Amino acid sequence: MTSRLRPVQPGKTTLVAVLDIGSTKICCVIARLVPRGEGRALRGRSHQAEVIGFGYGPSAGVKSGVVTDIEAAEHAIRAVVGMAERAAGLTLESVIVNVTAGRLGSETFSASVSLGGQEVEKTDIVRVLRAVNERSVRPERSIIHALPIGYAIDGQKGIREPKGMVGDTLGVDVAVVSAETLAMRNLELVLHRCHLQIEALIATPYAAGLATLVDDEAQLGVACIDFGGATTTVSVFNDGHLVYADALAIGGHHLTLDIARQLSVSVADAERLKTFYGSVLPGQSDERDMIPINPVGAQPDEAPGQIARSVLTRIMRPRIEEILTAIRDRMQATGMMDVCGRRFVLTGGASELTGLPEVARRTLARNVRNGRPMGISGLPDMAKGAAFATVAGMLVYPQVCAQEYQEPRGSRKLTGTDGYLARVGNWLRHSF
């Protein structure tokens, strides 16, 4: 349960590099985090990200967020990172990486410690968080995030900062997001082959939420659905904190494969049909609008075939409804449909399908809006859309990672507190 990333210091400019390893695209961004004044719309952010290096390319060797071919993944990552390094004029040693693989899941753990009527001190907060840590650690799963949702003193919940308060017992609820350890190890292996260290891991749904939600939404309760290439992830925020994260291994690329199979066209043609003509909501003129298609194996001199636009809609809509229904059922089973309030935000590349918000509104019975990344300047025009929400959220993450529980590291002293080395250090400090 250790956040390895150092939070950015208020008032200081710092460089950060993020790498989004997706199933359809890989994107690397190097940005300068510059201190910003307190704004009204995005109150939690202390810095503004100014992009100085951007690299982007097709993904290879990755399926549903899991590494399937180390060699191919290494080549794809090297090409994209090299592009960003050349644009920024520097060489990367470590990156912040997103995680979708390894059956992402979240649980809430609670623990309490006795105070004996004394004031809450920092050591008491560490004690109660350690108690949660001991209950949540399992060998087969790695903890990515451990976010204290709220404290309680003598059963009184909703306390944000218990330090200095008096009571008999101190309790805490912690939202723990975890993934399978072996999937993490493969990701680490690929990056080591590219001579890159992992500075921190961030769950994809958390990153998408950080980029697209405004403060009031996160406070009142909201769910963010990120429609990726081969995975769809969902995160629920309440009272300003992430409380739930989940991932499904179905995404926009499955829509493309459905179109390719049903119409017997190539995957590239199916992607083009989906992007230009695809809709999940039937229109009045769909039966009359004819779309040209080139079947697989057709001769160059053959005339292209034609289908009505309504045929395309009938292929795509069931898959979208399947994804939304699966998310709704999972959230109802965990009680998160009540926690997320009345609002859903859709983001990710596949969220830009025509008619998706309307279908989501009917399926989920909630208010729905499309979300785009906010508060990032200097991105190229192609990277300002919803498909790059995860990348933008990873640039926001260093500003908010201080909220996470961090395992205290004991500093090892070679010769005790007043040993020879400590005395030399004191002498150097006081003499110069």
From TrEMBL:
It is a peripheral membrane protein. InterPro entries: ATPase_NBD, Cell_div_FtsA, FtsA/MreB, SHS2_FtsA. It is found in: Cell membrane. CDD domains: ASKHA_NBD_FtsA. Residues 16-212 form the SHS2 domain. Keywords: Cell cycle, Cell division, Cell membrane, Membrane. One of its GO terms (biological process) is cell division. NCBIfam families: ftsA. Self-interacts. Interacts with FtsZ. HAMAP family: FtsA. Belongs to the FtsA/MreB family. Cell division protein that is involved in the assembly of the Z ring. May serve as a membrane anchor for the Z ring. This is Cell division protein FtsA. It comes from Devosia albogilva. The lineage of its organism: Bacteria, Pseudomonadati, Pseudomonadota, Alphaproteobacteria, Hyphomicrobiales. The gene is ftsA.
